[in-house]
Predict the 3D structure of the following.
Amino acid sequence: MKPTPPPLPKNQLPQPRKLPVQARSRALVDAIAEACQRILDKEGEEALTVNRIAEVSGATVGSIYQYFPNKESMIAAVFERVLDQESEQLHRMREQMRDLPLDAILRQVFANMIRVELQLHRLSRAFHARYRSALHLGLWHAPQANAQEFINTTWLVLLQMHEAQVQTEHPQLAAYLLGKGMREVIHNAVQDMPEQVQSAEFLDALMAMAMACIRTGRGPRS
């Protein structure tokens, strides 16, 4: 029997009490999630109470608890909304980057990762830290079963497509460092020093590390 693959990241987040089925209930849940996002954006996590959500969304307290058992499940709904939107934007961005040189692609990818991580961090620092492995934009709605498969089918393929610009005898290691290591650096930096992460110097430092990963060894691979 084949082993069951690990669940996709979305399934690792706190789940609602039940999923809406009818159009009216879906609209209600959307309104609740939108209200949660507005409160987190404008007032902060401390203001995210059931009474405040009811006030902003127009839903009753009872209907909110009908779908969301606790505060974490409400925040999860907001993060899912954000990642759904960012996943669509990432797909469009990948299409637009097809003809760019490797260094330009990396700079855009890292800048986008910084922007998304900062957005999630600002919504809820604690939630962003607690569910870091589940909040992987590249894996969101992706067919890959885990992070390593994602690295092999995206980052490694990217290096293979730009082989002339890659000077390392260990492309799989370089792909791992780009796909796993750089994400960890960005996530931790957003948690520890969010103001500095927004600087041009931080992105330049990421690019220097990335280029060091792909320009080690004796020269271009034959």
